[in-house]
Specification:
- This protein has one domain (8-104).
- Helix content is 0%, strand content 41%.
- It contains no helices and 8 strands.
- The chain has strands at 8-11, 26-28, 31-38, 49-55, 61-68, 84-89, 92-97, 101-103.
- The mean pLDDT is 91.
Length: 109
């Protein structure tokens, strides 16, 4: 899924684990948790989620920019689900994998 800065997204609590069985997002009490930073240098590894965090319910987030892809995933191969984006909610920024997001425009009424 192609995500561009300025788009609105929601988090998909059912996509916290990638098809390769890597944990991409914390889920506490059935709610997704985002952190201020995902360590692009070391993912997948231990202690990759850093900084302040927040539990989300069904909030709308604004995509600010694409941070990049963890260094352990090739830019040449189709690993776009591991692209990390900076999103904003209530004047704070968080980082999130593209796999965990769904565009508002893609939601069915």
């Amino acid at each position: 899924m192609k995500i561009l800065p300025g788009e609105l997204v929601k988090l998909d609590v059912n996509k916290d684990v990638s098809p390769e069985n890597l944990k991409l997002m914390a889920v506490d009490f059935g709610q997704p948790r985002l952190y201020a930073e995902i360590r692009i240098e070391s993912f997948p590894g231990w202690d990759d989620f850093k900084g302040y965090s927040k539990l989300f319910n069904d909030e709308v987030l604004l995509v600010i920019s694409r941070k990049g892809r963890p260094y352990s995933f090739s830019e040449k191969e189709n690993w776009s689900i591991y692209d990390i984006y900076v999103v904003m909610y209530s004047n704070k920024t968080y980082e999130c994998f593209s796999y965990c997001m769904k565009k508002i425009s893609d939601e069915q009424p």
